[in-house]
Input
Amino acid sequence: MAAAPVAVALAAAPALAGRVALVTGAAQGLGLAIARALGEAGARLVLADSQPAVQEVAAAFAADGLAAHAVVADVATEAGWQRMLQAGCDAHGFVDVLVNNAARTASTPLWDISVEEWDALMAVNLRGCFLGCRALGAHMRARGEGGRILNMASLAGQQASAATGLHYAASKAGILALTRGFATELAPDRITVNALAPAAIRSPALDGLPEVRQQALLGAIPLGRFGEPEEVGAAAVFLASGAGAFITGATLDVNGGRLMR
Ligand SMILES: NC(=O)c1ccc[n+]([C@@H]2O[C@H](COP(=O)([O-])OP(=O)(O)OC[C@H]3O[C@@H](n4cnc5c(N)ncnc54)[C@H](O)[C@@H]3O)[C@@H](O)[C@H]2O)c1
Output
């Protein structure tokens, strides 16, 4: 029998076979959904979170046949990033996909945000993203095999909203600047850096809102429904895969048309 054409064989391979993805904030929510999507697309995983519960998530993934290793670490510190990178190298040899997903979400009115709350949120959301891009960018650059970095932004960083705190919105706008800066810096090394900007994704918090409030939110979404966490995962798989190789410095909106730019 004739051998299958190479193109067919490649097309049949999982999109992320051979990749190693580090996902922060993977103990719950979108981080968990993104990690599962990357794993199901063939990536080996390092699941990081400040909550020890991430170890149970990794065990559940492993029970489903995914190659998942957990590390408890704080994204706000350089020591945390050393732990995450070391865990990835120990478990899988290297890391070539980073998803900077961990964040604090807050809705404190701007008049009530204390300096301490501002600094604590910025340390996780903005400094954490900066430290992650720098630590993993340096690792990918030294390895010389290219790479992918995805930063979780938000609609909150793109337009004004009373629903989220101004410190949260400022951190997410800052992540867009970090994305462009690291994309420029790392492009010569075939490392792409992009942002995902979700909005209106179904979550326990959203489901807990009164029906009338949910209907009001739905009214502002042209596609007429909330998004599912798995749909953010699918967008992450696309950007992390070979199909996303010519996209860098971009922001991919996953918002049902809530904001069109
Ligand atoms: N859920 C949405 O609809 C939505 C919309 C827009 C943007 N986002 C963004 O997507 C990402 C995930 O959102 P989510 O709703 O799943 O959040 P979540 O609060 O449910 O989960 C965040 C995770 O990050 C972890 N984390 C917090 N601080 C950490 C630290 N210092 N070090 C390590 N881990 C830490 C938490 O333990 C938690 O597991 C965030 O960046 C968020 O801003 C979410």
